[in-house]
Design a protein that fits this description.
The structure holds 2 protein chains of 2 kinds. Chain A is about 75% helix and about 0% strand. By secondary structure, chain A is mainly alpha-helical. The longest helix of chain A is centred in the middle third of the chain and has 37 residues. The model of chain A has no long low-confidence stretch (mean pLDDT about 80). Chain B contains 12 helices and no strands. In chain B, helix 4 packs parallel to helix 12. Classes of the chains: A mainly alpha, B mainly alpha. The interface between A and B is large, with 39 and 44 residues.
């Protein structure tokens, strides 16, 4: 009977242990994020558009042969057709978004443009992240005169009309190859947005550097770069993530208007901005050429903003705890 | 306070120097020349052209000439627009851009502050959701898409407003460009006002004002707004920088003869004096306006004092 009682106790203890599932700060934040309906909506839309942009162009090419640079051979098809209209005038499924002035399918162009726009936005944000986080972390940890000087530089750069210089740069020094052009765009756009990231990271690092784990790391002889990058930066990630998610739409917007002016992505490559530029020219007679890229882009920016706001609200209590 | 102002004014000169140098350097690094049209020129013609524009002298001489003329207020002659000095062009184009920017910002302030305050006062009601949704739309739609769409609806379908071009100041031509330019600022200002007002309306001095028997209207307009608008004022600094880039696009879309349009054309034409002139002008304007915004910040919130 003793054994039975023991087994029962063990059983209850096991059950009790099972019920207490540990939850990390990240999982709490994730749960908070999911409760925010707008943020979930944003997440879903972003996922859908990203998926469509990544696999869409290949799928469309395999299925129908349309691509962003494929012009129909028959000359009667080298015109702009409205959505869902066949060349004879009846209803047809072939061009759900219509065609542009050279007969190219707009759906394929919008999705290819999405590929380029997303790639530029992601990589430029990464560039600004790398520069901003390093700069801010170093300034925040070293403090004193170095921090003063570094932040003064940031203040001075902040008041420059950056985009003007970027425009001059892109207009006058077009790279020769398309990949070169893209690389130029990445750096130009990344260089515009790293300033606020540096400020945010510096603030975080300064509030973290007096904590015990830093003292312990220093006492055990960890070198300064390792302290900065291996200990402080991972703990400062909360605001960094939020700001990065809010930087992506702003960089996307910058790339779009640069392409609209003819300075960003150049033909034959397409981006949402250059599609808008093409569409704006024949707006009065072929409005669908502007509406579809425009709506896609607006939807994407809206969803990214919802997602960013949701992330900020979800991570905020966590940030305050730190 | 005075030292702060002097320090900021003094720093304008070196910054201008750096900006103009960078721009000049970029222009010189660029391949191509302003006189390269579609044809190649005969060597004798090219030599004459270069002599006329002083481009046969070594680069440091030309660099120094830029600054020497600058100091005398002479920004040079445009290379593309024959015979017009850069000063003339800027003098003509600046009022257009300034009017556009001012109208857009005033519109943004008016609509943004009103919607933000309304949303804050009736938090979580349908007005709040409607205003927040409107604000999000303003952030999401880029101005180069909103512009043509507005033109399509109001100018090409309804025929209420002219679709493009500039017709002097109080004319219908400014309506669509101003709305397009202001859209994103309406959104930001509404959001900032809403969160600012939400915070302010909970504070003690507002409760005191209500307890003293002031009407709700007086409480909001005379006491609440002053504190709630602080984030909006501090946003005016960065907003100015964005306004400039927005002006470039809007002037392009609506074919307005403003600084932005001239600037882009100058970049495409490799018109060196015009590029440098406009960049310098914009830089000075931005720096001075930022300084004014920072000073006004000190007046609005007595707790902020600059050493």
């Amino acid at each position: 009977m003793n054994d039975e009682a023991n087994m029962q106790d063990q059983h209850t203890a096991d059950e009790a242990a099972e019920l207490v599932v540990g939850s990390s700060l990240w999982r709490d934040a994730w749960r908070r994020l999911l409760k925010n309906k707008l943020a979930v909506f944003g997440m879903i839309v972003v996922a859908v558009i990203v998926l469509a942009s990544v696999i869409g162009p290949t799928v469309i090419q395999r299925a129908t042969g349309y691509a962003y640079d494929v012009m129909p051979k028959e000359t009667r098809l080298n015109k702009s057709f409205p959505p869902f209209r066949s060349p004879e005038g009846g209803f047809s499924w072939t061009h759900p978004m219509g065609t542009d002035n050279a007969g190219r399918d707009i759906l394929a162009r919008v999705l290819s443009g999405g590929q380029i726009s997303l790639m530029v936005a992601l990589i430029a944000t990464l560039v600004s992240l790398v520069i901003g986080v390093s700069y801010g972390a170093i300034a925040g940890y070293l403090g004193g005169r170095i921090d003063d000087v570094m932040m003064r530089v940031v203040d001075v750069l902040y008041s420059l009309p950056y985009v003007i210089i970027v425009i001059v740069l892109l207009a006058l020094l077009p790279a020769k190859t398309p990949t070169g052009q893209l690389a130029e765009l990445f750096f130009a756009l990344g260089a515009v947005s790293w300033l606020t990231m540096a400020r945010i990271v510096r603030g975080q690092v300064m509030s973290l550097k007096n904590q015990d784990f830093v003292l312990a790391a220093r006492a055990t002889g960890v070198s300064t770069p390792k302290i900065i990058f291996r200990h402080l930066v991972p703990n400062a990630l909360g605001p960094v993530i939020v700001y990065a998610t809010l930087t992506i739409p702003s960089v996307m917007l910058s790339e779009a208007f640069l392409s609209f002016l003819g300075l960003g992505v150049r033909p034959p490559r397409v981006s949402w901005g250059s599609l808008a530029a093409d569409g704006a020219q024949t707006l009065a007679i072929f409005p669908w050429q502007l509406i579809f890229p425009g709506v896609t882009m607006a939807l994407m920016l809206l969803s990214l903003n919802f997602l960013g706001d949701g992330l900020r609200d979800a991570l905020d209590p966590q940030m305050r705890k730190q | 306070m005075l030292r702060f102002i002097i320090r900021r004014v003094v720093i304008i000169v070196p910054m201008l120097f750096i900006i103009v140098s960078i721009t000049w350097g970029l222009i010189r690094l660029a391949p191509g020349n302003f006189y390269l049209g579609e044809r190649k020129l005969a060597p004798a013609v090219e030599k004459n052209l270069r002599e006329k524009y002083g481009m046969d002298k070594p680069w440091y001489v030309q660099y120094w000439k830029v600054f020497r003329n600058f100091g005398q207020g002479d920004l040079g002659t445009s290379l593309k627009y024959e015979g017009q000095s850069v000063n003339q062009i800027i003098w003509r184009a600046f009022p257009v851009s300034a009017t556009l920017g001012l109208c857009a910002y005033l519109l943004a302030l008016g609509v943004g502050i009103t919607t933000g305050t309304l949303a804050a006062l009736r938090q979580n009601s349908w007005i709040d959701y409607a205003c927040t949704a409107l604000a999000m739309v303003g952030i999401a739609i880029p101005n180069f898409i909103l512009g043509p769409l507005l033109v399509l609806v109001f100018a090409l379908t309804l025929f209420w407003l002219p679709p493009a071009l500039w017709n002097g100041f109080p004319s219908k031509n400014i309506v669509l460009p101003a709305i397009t330019l202001s859209a994103i600022y309406i959104a930001y200002i509404a959001r900032l006002t809403r969160s600012g007002m939400l915070e302010v309306m909970r504070s003690d001095y507002i409760r005191t004002a209500r307890a003293k028997g002031l009407s709700e209207r007086a409480v909001v307009m005379r006491h609440g707004l002053r504190g709630g608008l602080l984030p909006v004022v501090s946003f005016s600094g960065p907003a100015l920088a964005f306004l400039i880039t927005g002006t470039v696009v809007v002037e392009r879309v609506f074919a307005l003869p403003g600084l932005g349009n001239y600037f882009i054309n100058a970049c495409f034409n490799r018109d060196e004096p015009l590029i440098i002139g406009i960049v310098a002008f914009i830089a000075i304007a931005v720096l001075v306006l930022n300084l004014l915004v920072d000073i006004s910040y000190g007046f609005l919130d007595p707790r902020i004092r600059y050493t």
